Amino acid sequence: MKKKYIVLGVLVAAVAGAWYFTPSLESIVKTLVHKYGSQVTGTDVNLEGFDLSLKNGEGKIKKITVANPEGYKKPYILSLDGITVKVDLKSLTSDTIIIEKVQIDKPVVTYEMLSLTQNNIKQLQENIKHFTDSGKSASADAKEAQPAEETKEGGKKVIIKSLTVNNGELQAAANIAGNSPDISVKLPTIQMNNIGAAKNGDSITQTITKIFNQILSTASATAVSSNLSNLKDVATENLNNVVGGVKDRVKSIGIFGK
C-alpha cells in the first residue's frame, strides 16, 4: 500500500514538473531567439509557439520570422514555418545543447529590390557581416560585464547534427514606385551537418549566423540563376516611369517651358 502511494507521488511530481518546466523553456527559447537573432540580423526576429516533449525530446516551432531591413515594404524577409526538432534531453542541463535534427519545411524568403543595386537579401547579409566583424570582442566584453544570471542561457553552446530545409520558396518583388509584381521560384534543398561540432559547440549567435547565412546565400544564388533577372527590367521600367512622371510634373509647372 505504501509503495502504491510512493509511485503515485512520483507521478504527480513528474506531471507537476513537466507543467512547470515546459512553459519556462518556451519562454526561454522565445527570448533567446528574439534577443540574439535580432542582434545578428539588425532586424526584429521573433519565434511563435514552441512545444517540446519531455518524453522523447521531439519538438515543434510554429514559426520564426525575420523582419525586413528598414526601407522595404514587405514585413518579412524570412518566414520559417513548420519547424520540427529533436533534442538530446540530457544535454539541456549541460553547457552544450545537442540538437539531433532540425527540419524546416516550406520556408519563404522574400526578395525585394529598392533599386537596381539594392535588395533586402544583400542588405541583411551586410548586417550579419557587420555583426560578425565587429561583435566578437564586443560580445565577449559585454558578457564579462553582465551579471552571471543574465548570461547563463546566452552562454550555452549548441551543436546541431543535422539541419534540413525543404520545399523553400523565393518570392520576389520589385518595389519601385509602389509596384510589386510578385514572382515565385522554388529553393533547392539545404542540408547542413554537424553545425558547431568542430568546436564542441557554437554560441547561439554563431549558430544563428551560420543558418541564416546559408539560407540567404542559397536564396541569392537562386535569384541570380533563375528568371528573376527579369525583375531588373521591371525595376528599370518602374524607375523610368518615376523619372518620366517627375519630368512631366516639372514641365506642367513651367520650369522648363512647354
What does this structure look like?
This protein has 258 residues and is of the alpha+beta class. It has one domain. The chain has five helices and ten strands; from the N terminus they run αβββββααβββββαα. It has helices spanning 2-41, 120-145, 148-151, 204-225, 230-252, and strands at 45-52, 58-67, 76-87, 96-105, 108-113, 157-166, 169-174, 183-186, 190-195, 202-203. Strands 1, 2, 3, 4, 5, 6, 7, 8, 9 and 10 form a ten-stranded mixed beta sheet that branches. A hairpin with a 5-residue loop joins strand 1 (45-52) and strand 2. Helix 1 crosses helix 4 (204-225) and helix 2 (120-145) packs antiparallel against helix 4.
Mean pLDDT: 78
User: Taking Cα atoms only, what radius of gyration do you get, to the nearest Å?
Assistant: 24 Å
Helix percentage: 40-55%
Q: Count the E strands.
A: 10
Number of separate helices: 5
Low-confidence stretches: 4-22, 137-151, 241-258
List its traits:
5 helices; 45% helix; alpha+beta; single chain; globular; ten-stranded mixed sheet; 258 residues
How does the SSE layout of this entry go?
Blueprint: H1 2-41, E1 45-52, E2 58-67, E3 76-87, E4 96-105, E5 108-113, H2 120-145, H3 148-151, E6 157-166, E7 169-174, E8 183-186, E9 190-195, E10 202-203, H4 204-225, H5 230-252
Short description:
This protein has about 260 residues and is an alpha+beta fold. The chain contains 5 helices and 10 strands, in the order H-E-E-E-E-E-H-H-E-E-E-E-E-H-H.
